[in-house]
């Protein structure tokens, strides 16, 4: 009887010990699973953070390129606006010059007509050293002008091209002693002809530049 009681007690102790081990093992496995789940979550979050960082860097680069493109377009528009403004100013100045010369010629037209015969008599048309230049970019206009002047009685010594090709009208340049002759010639060429003094040294007394 005593032996049976002892065996039963030992069995109970063994069962309790075994249960304790199973409970301990079950808790360990649960903690390990929780740790694995947490580690996976942290890894997923880290990967997501890297993806977000990469996307952010890409957006920053695209934004920087867009700003550069906009800045380049703004700079181009500014340069075009400035160029248009310069062209408008140049055109306006040219128109004002033509209008001023037309007004001046209108006032002095009668005087020029009166001076023309005297100038021809005093200097002699063929004694005037004359050159004709094309101010339109084509030598043909200078040749036609030279032929026209020859038919008027002038002696044209040479024909060539002017440095500029944007002359708005026929222009007669003269040295100081041939102002009257230049005005007389301009009146014969037409009311739109411009008369200007020579501002550079030349062997020619009158230089006619075609334009218009």
What percentage of amino acids are in beta strands?
5-15%
Distance between the termini: 145 Å
Task: Note poorly predicted spans.
Answer: 113-122
Provide the CATH architecture of the domain at 111-210: 2-Layer Sandwich
CATH class term of the domain at 111-210: Alpha Beta
Q: In percent, how helical is the residue content? A: 55-70%
The neighbouring-strand order within the major sheet is 2-1-5-3-4
CATH topology of the domain at 111-210: Alpha-Beta Plaits
Rounded average pLDDT: 82
The H/E string reads HEHEEHEE
Description of the molecule:
By secondary structure, the chain is α/β, with parallel strands linked by helices. The chain has a domain at 111-210: Alpha-Beta Plaits (2-Layer Sandwich). The protein is built from 3 helices and 5 strands; from the N terminus they run H-E-H-E-E-H-E-E. The chain has helices spanning 2-123, 139-152, 179-189; strands at 130-134, 156-161, 171-174, 194-197, 206-210. Strands 2-1-5-3-4 form a 5-stranded mixed beta sheet. Helix 3 links the parallel strand 3 and strand 4. The longest helix has 122 residues, at 2-123. The radius of gyration is 51 Å and the shape is rod-shaped. The termini are far apart. Residues 113-122 have low confidence and may be disordered.
């Amino acid at each position: 009887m005593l032996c049976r009681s002892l065996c039963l007690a030992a069995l109970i102790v063994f069962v309790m010990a075994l249960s304790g081990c199973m409970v301990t093992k079950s808790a360990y496995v649960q903690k390990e699973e929780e740790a694995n789940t947490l580690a996976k979550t942290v890894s997923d979050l880290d990967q997501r953070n890297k993806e977000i960082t990469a996307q952010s860097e890409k957006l920053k680069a695209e934004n920087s390129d867009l700003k550069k493109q906009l800045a380049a377009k703004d700079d181009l528009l500014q340069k075009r606006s400035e160029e248009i403004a310069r062209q408008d100013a140049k055109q306006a100045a040219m128109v004002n010059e033509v209008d001023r010369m037309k007004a001046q010629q209108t006032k002095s037209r009668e005087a020029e007509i009166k001076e023309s015969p005297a100038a021809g008599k005093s200097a002699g048309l063929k004694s005037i050293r004359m050159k004709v230049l094309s101010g339109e970019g084509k030598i043909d206009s200078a040749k036609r002008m030279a032929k026209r002047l020859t038919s008027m009685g002038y002696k044209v010594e040479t024909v060539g091209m002017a440095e500029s090709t944007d002359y708005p009208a026929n222009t007669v340049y003269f040295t100081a002693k041939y102002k009257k002759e230049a005005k007389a010639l301009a009146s014969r060429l037409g009311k739109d002809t411009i008369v200007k003094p020579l501002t550079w040294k030349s062997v020619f007394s009158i230089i006619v530049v075609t334009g218009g």
